[in-house]
Write a structure and sequence with these properties.
single chain; mainly alpha; two-stranded antiparallel ribbon
């Protein structure tokens, strides 16, 4: 596991998650981009203010990581290969997912 210097967030080498949860930071950011308030996100995921603040610090410090995760999720939903992802890795991920 690779640890990033953002307190309250850990990184598994692929995605950033809140400490102690399997909740990806990019998911929270996606709700923010959709117009959800911080209060609504906290209520929906039973988060503390500090947990959400840690997520926003990670987003601010790693915008490219978050952008890439959002793009990969969007292309995965459509069954497309994300830009820049080698075909062999794309097939390997598809086999693991389903």
């Amino acid at each position: 596991m690779t640890i990033h210097p953002t307190p309250g967030v850990y990184h598994d080498g692929t995605r950033a998650y809140l400490d102690g949860r399997r909740l990806a930071v990019w998911v929270l950011h996606g709700f923010r981009l959709a117009g959800e308030s911080d209060a609504a996100i906290i209520a929906a995921y039973d988060l503390t203010d500090e947990e959400l603040a840690a997520a926003w610090r990670y987003v601010a410090a790693n915008p490219e990581d978050i952008r890439r995760a959002l793009v990969e999720n969007d292309t995965r939903r459509r069954g497309e290969r994300p830009p820049g992802l080698p075909r062999s890795e794309w097939w390997a991920r598809r086999r693991r997912v389903g």
